[in-house]
Request: fold
Amino acid sequence: MDPTQFQTVLYALSGGVLTITLNRPARRNALNPLAYAEIEAAFRAADADDRVRAVVVTGADPAFCSGEDVKEMMTGGPRAPSDPGTKRRATPAAMAALDCTKPVIAAVNGAAVGWGMELALYADIRIASERAQFAELFVKRGLVCDVGGLLRLPALVGPAKAAELLFTGDVIDAAEAARIGLVSEIVAHGALLEHATALAARIAANPPLAVRALKEGLRKTAYGDPREIGGWAIETIYRLFDTEDHREGVRSFLEKRPAVFTGR
Reply:
């Protein structure tokens, strides 16, 4: 997939720093199948391009990423049935971000919820504007999170705080995210992208082979196997798609009412 032909993502390389911008602002950068595919392609292209020394991922205001486009994806045609004999793989877009050997900085400019929070977790460094919000909302839809919430979140904030965020689906603001170690710092909204790009440029000025080795070393020491955990997450998500609680979570969201879950 040619980055110059992207429809939902902006791909801009300058001075060794690649900026990937989710660009569906009217939908708060919610994700449809094309957006997932273009995010995957953007990270694969970044990894393969020797001119790219560091990556900044952000969203077109007002949001970073509001997760899946529920109206488009949840109310469309039926999902492909799960084949008991086929082992599902981790989300391709997630693995593209996690596999990227270049340092990745998430410049979180607004809501990063659902898979938007996942995307922020795949970055090596997260910087937030004062407007940023974070939430692993999957439980509210009767689902489990993707690999970021299971693999990265506990390593960043500790298992107990990760459990609280995953089990409740609570929304936290930038100040709380900084307090628990989810983000490195908070900057003024208007200065966010410039600040993140300047940090990326400082990283890009260093020897790329050493930076790549450092990233690999951190991955080995801080996290588990993303393919194993991501595969389990996707298998579980597809099983939960068939539950009444998931359908109620979607209906209640679309109807803007409290959900009533029954455990079925």
